[in-house]
From TrEMBL:
Chief place where the protein resides: membrane
Assigned protein family: Belongs to the nlpA lipoprotein family.
Domain of life where this protein originates: Bacteria
Matches recorded under CDD domains: PBP2_lipoprotein_Tp32 (cd13597)
Lineage summary: Bacteria, Bacillati, Actinomycetota, Actinomycetes, Kitasatosporales
Compartments reported by the entry: Membrane
Name of this protein: Lipoprotein
Length: 275
């Protein structure tokens, strides 16, 4: 019995040491050799990164692996925990709120493009057609809900109190002449809600995933002027100077990628004017 216990203890110790070693390796983003592992939502981030991987990365001496996500939380937790080296899908207000609420330490490296948020409807052709008491679905996370309300205010259907920021909520609505009702849903569910509500304010990536064209189908679309919601390449603080990250950042704002974005999205995604 003593021999068996000793053997089990030795095996457990060996497994423990192996697990510690694996944890150290996973902190490098899970890539092979010097591969840069980047998390992204499928559209447009995944498509932009795929274009870079297939056409530009090798010439720049960059090995790129793309991991796609369908939500807005896991790409940041995976980055914080070292399962990714970088991610591309979010904007600065969302990242700031995520760091504050989740205790993460993620920073922006470069902002390559703007995916405008839009209002979509199966029932009306124009934002002015929303009837009294209409139900409008909006994202249920703080920054995207605030963004949605600001878009509705820009369209003239509601007014927000002076100074309402990126975290605006329905409580900040000071004038609602059409008595709109707001239905808060997870961002990914918004396109599927269009048969059940009068309109929905949908993030660009989920709209395109659902086959909606922001420039053709949106009844109200964000303006690019002074827009703070450009998507950014994020890394864990202290990794900004990783040579692989710098190579990808340079490619994301290269003339080739700007041309790809213009040609593929026809205004539904816009190359950012600055980094």
């Amino acid at each position: 019995m003593r021999t068996s216990v000793a053997a089990v203890a030795a095996l457990a110790l060996g497994l423990g040491l192996t697990a510690c070693g694996s944890g150290t390796d996973s902190g490098k983003g899970g890539g092979k050799d010097d591969t840069l592992v980047v998390g992204a939502t499928a559209v447009p981030a995944g498509e932009v990164l795929t274009y870079i991987r297939d056409h530009l990365a090798a010439k720049a001496g960059l090995k790129l692996e793309i991991k796609e996500f369908t939500d807005y939380v896991l790409p940041n937790t995976a980055l914080q925990e070292g399962e990714l080296d970088a991610n591309l899908y979010q904007n600065q207000p969302y990242l700031d709120d995520f760091n504050k609420s989740k205790g993460t330490d993620l920073v922006s490296v470069v902002k390559p493009y703007l995916p405008p948020m839009g209002v979509y409807s199966h029932r009306v052709k124009d934002i002015s057609g929303l009837a009294d008491g209409a139900t409008v679905a909006v994202p249920n996370d703080i920054t995207n809900e605030g963004r949605a309300l600001k878009l509705l205010a820009a369209g003239g259907v509601i007014k927000l109190k002076a100074g309402a920021g990126t975290d605006a909520s329905p409580r900040d609505v000071t004038d609602n002449p059409r008595h709109l009702k707001f239905k808060e849903l997870e961002a990914a569910q918004l396109p599927r809600s269009l048969d059940d509500v009068d309109a929905a304010v949908v993030n660009n990536n989920y709209a395109q995933d659902a086959g909606l064209s922001p420039t053709k189908d949106a009844i109200l679309l964000e303006s690019a002027k002074n827009n703070p919601y450009a998507n950014l390449l994020a890394v864990k603080r202290g990794h900004e100077d990783d040579p692989r990250v710098k190579k990808l950042a340079g490619l994301l704002i290269s003339p080739e990628v700007r041309a790809f974005i213009k040609d593929k999205y026809h205004g539904s995604v816009l190359p950012a004017t600055g980094s």
